[in-house]
Amino acid sequence: MIDRILKQREVVKITGMSRPTIWRKEKLGLFPARRDLGARSVGWLESEIKAWMESLPCVEHGEEAA
Fold this sequence. Notes:
There is one protein chain. The protein is an alpha+beta fold. It is built from 3 helices and 5 strands, in the order E-H-H-E-E-H-E-E. It has a 3-stranded antiparallel beta sheet with strand order 1-3-2. The chain is globular.
């Protein structure tokens, strides 16, 4: 199976985070690292973004779900 490369616009849409928030989390090691695709172009592996999202705690009605 080939892993898709997600561009920044897609990552923002999927995660609901702003570009600066993604950048800050990435620098702190709290978000998957971007890949350089060429001059002025970056992307993220879809599988890494999905795995990161699945690792987040599930929150329901303001409380963490069991």
